[in-house]
Write a structure and sequence with these properties.
Blueprint: H1 2-10, H2 24-37, E1 40-42, E2 49-51, E3 55-59, E4 64-67, E5 73-77, E6 91-95, E7 98-99, E8 102-107, E9 110-115, E10 124-129, E11 145-151, E12 162-166, E13 171-174, E14 180-184, E15 197-201, E16 207-208, E17 211-216, E18 219-224, E19 233-238, E20 254-260, E21 274-278, E22 283-293, E23 296-302, E24 306-307, E25 309-311, E26 317-318, E27 324-328, E28 332-335, H3 342-361, E29 382-383, E30 386-389, E31 395-397, E32 402-405, E33 414-418, E34 422-424, E35 435-438, E36 446-450, E37 454-456, E38 463-470, E39 474-476, E40 485-493, E41 498-501, E42 503-506
Parallel strand pairs: 4-11, 13-20, 21-23, 21-40, 22-24, 22-27, 22-41, 22-42, 23-28, 25-27, 29-32, 30-33, 31-34, 32-35, 33-36, 34-37, 36-38, 37-39, 38-40, 39-41, 40-42
Antiparallel strand pairs: 1-2, 3-5, 5-9, 6-7, 6-10, 8-9, 10-11, 12-14, 14-18, 15-16, 15-19, 17-18, 19-20, 25-26
Amino acid sequence: MKKNSLQKEKTLVPTCKTYSHISNKWFMLLLLVVFAAGCKKVTEKTGLIGVCPKVISTSPSDTASGISLITKVDATFNEVMNASTLNTATFTVQRGTTGIAGVVTYTGSTATFTPTANLAPNTSYTGTIVAGVKDPSGNAMIADYVWSFKTGAGPDIMAPYVTATDPLNAAINVAPDKNISATFSEAMDPLTIPTSFTITNTTLGGTSIAGAVSYSGITAVFKPSADLSPNTTYAATITIGAKDLAGNAMLNNYVWNFTTGQVTPPAIGSLSDFGVFGGNAGITNQGLNTVINNGSIGTTAASTLITGFHDGTMGDIYTETPLNVGDVKGRIYTAPPTPGDATSFVIATKGLADANILYNSISPASKPGGTDPGAGELGGLTLAPGIYKSASGTFKITNGDLTLDAKGDPNAVWIFQTAAGLTVGVAGPAGARSVKMINGALPKNVYWYVGSAATINAAGGGIMSGTIISSAGITFSTAGNAVQTVLNGRAISLVASVTMVNTTINVQ
């Protein structure tokens, strides 16, 4: 009878029974039978026997492929489970090593993981039910259950997004001639890109920047119509108008910012040797104390249009008089007649060509974005490196000296643009004005673009700084002034003469 009784009790193992009346011998035999039959839980003290929970099926099944992007992930157990033990900590779905967001629910004997967003196409995922999830009796799974599946291509319902930009967000010292690019997560509809990609100058309150947008592969490129302004912050935006090939729009505007660096100095070519260039019209000195240090002078005009100078290297004299003696430490280059010759004319011609190139390279067309902090009056200002353009068409330095502050950067560049004239100084003995350089600022990095003529300290005196390149002539001081006027830089004219009265040019 005991044997039959034992056999009867064995058939009830899955329902958890107590066998305290069984002898140790028969209890050990029962353990062997139970564990041979499968995962069980037995305690010798109470004789409690229960079925250990385990996953018996999943959806998607292990190694399944071509799964829908909107699928839910199910795990079905061999018995009813304690729902409180099934949550996003014990039931996870991962893309590689990264868990995806979702919600876990439980009904019957099935737990369901519902992803917060659609799954990605053609992507492998791993589902995991961790050991420790329990049934209502407290029996726990004895090992993690792990399975994997892969999504199919499916209909494209994923919103595109920006994965990378150049320059990066918050980048600094970006070159003013930089093209701005954005790379997307997938191929985009090229017709939606040009109107969705914008650049604005946030330093000037959001002024739009003109440019052309191109698209290739998965990358859009914004090419500004002209160089960006230096030392300026810009915002680049890809709007939700950008769509992928399936018509899915970006969920949000993508915005990033960057700041440009200093202006790069323009190339001056053969002008590096010239302190004064009189275009095709000549150069005139009046006075006994005009000197060109560290450089030469030149014009494509005939040698007879160089007056009041002598060549410090060759000893050639160009129409000097007892009252007009100018000392050129370098050479004098002109067209014939003697002392001009064919060789010096070639050098002068090259100088004029480079002067025109320089003039155009620092023009508003080539270097846009200049500001006018003093409404045309630069006197009394202290200016950081950058581009400055007169709104009225003229610049003056009359209300005081102009100070240029490099802020410790010896490569800092200033470009001043005026469509018409440049006037430095006012009348009277104390009328001279200067351009002062501080904190590492260098005259060789200062450029003055002058649309017509420049007049520098007509009353004599003062220290001007930078390369002045004028379309229609430059005049230093006026006849009869004995006080020395100084230019640390160059005086370049394109179609008119340069006139100096007791002027020192220190070529920089």
